[in-house]
Amino acid sequence: MKKFTKVLSLVLAASLMVVMLASCASSGGDEIVFGTNAEFPPFEFVTANGIIDSYDGIDIAIAKQIAEDNDMTATIENMEFDSLTIALQNGQIDAAIAGMTVTADRAEAVDFSTPYYTATQVMIVKEDSDIQKATDMADKRIVVIQGYTGEVCVQDLGYPYEAFKKGTEAILELVNDKCDVVVIDSATAEKFIGDNEGLKIVEDSEAFENEEYAIAVKKGNTELLDKINASIEKMLADGTVSEIAAQYAESDTEEAE
Ligand code: ARG
Questions:
Q1: Ligand 1 midpoint to CA 167 (Å)
Q2: pLDDT tens by residue, 167-223
Q3: 185 forms bridges with which residues in the sheet?
Q4: From the CA of 40, how far away is ligand 1's center (Å)?
Q5: What is the Cα 216 distance to its own chain's centre?
Q6: Domains along the chain with CATH numbers
């Protein structure tokens, strides 16, 4: 009986230490909550062994480094792309990192960091498609992703289209011949054509201008924005961003089922 009590108290003491150590680790620095929409490889995707929980990609690596540079811990909140601005405004997240293009409209609602990546919209079509430039889409069935800048581009061209919530859903439409073309960001398009047979990318630099990706914070949150900018500028200057981008462009970013 006595021995049992001793063992029990040892076990209790050991578990108490584990609990104390665990709480130490998380109270070591502040937390920075990044919102994203993990449907956008190679920038963010869900995978079995991500670098923050089950999340991985260029943006996730950048988020992690920003947190590290500021002695903070990065956590990820995955949500619909359309919800990121509201989540910033109501304080649910501290920053949005989601391959988000800087636009004048968005800049009215949020503050943007120094841009860290340049992209453009492209058209994904079947290999045998006759689409060669944006105006060739005029009489085609066009699919975009809801709320992405690609949707705005097609709206500006004045063509009818159908919008889906996820890039993978849009690609499925194309693969199944339910549409003729998907308009989406360049690096993500590269990933999708790598993951699906029989598709190709058509570019039109006259129709689609360059876009800059940046991190968004709540309007007026200069304290966080300064920290983010210092870290991004350092990562741009020392080549970290290009290294991360090249690494994820090559690696397998297909989502874990
Ligand atoms: N760059 C495009 C935009 O800003 C698409 C971004 C989509 N990002 C995502 N994580 N789903 O609208």
A1: 10
A2: 999 999 999 999 999 999 999 999 999 999 999 999 999 999 999 999 999 999 999
A3: 121
A4: 7
A5: 12
A6: 28-118+211-250 (3.40.190.10), 121-202 (3.40.190.10)
